[in-house]
Amino acid sequence: MYPWCTRPARNTVPGEHAADCDHITPRGRGGPTCSCNLAPLCRRHHRLKTHGGWTYTQPERGTYLWASPHGYTYLRNHHGTLDLGADLTTQHTAQRLRRA
Ligand SMILES: [Zn+2]
Fold this sequence. Notes:
The protein is globular, with a radius of gyration of 15 Å. The chain has one domain. The chain has helices at residues 43-51, 87-99, and strands spanning 21-23, 38-40, 55-60, 63-67, 73-77, 80-85. It has a four-stranded antiparallel beta sheet with strand order 3-4-5-6, with no helix packed on it. The chain is 22% helix and 28% strand. 13% of the residues are buried. It is of the alpha+beta class. Zinc ion is lined by residues 2, 5, 7, 42, 44-45.
């Protein structure tokens, strides 16, 4: 469910091959290990998400809204990936202009 990634997570059953399932709400913040809180990620992108500054939210089941460390946003679902561009950056810039 990483943008443009076509590599399948090997197993999305909670508790098995857990490294290929990402906790949407981290365990350290009380996120449960169940299908409602696990998203399939291949190992490479799981590492990138954990250590590379990428974040995402799940606005609805099966849909993931990613934000890159540089402020670009991508929508990923079973249809594929939609590049939303630097929407967050644009919004931040607009907010800054309004405050100035
Ligand atoms: Zn991947």
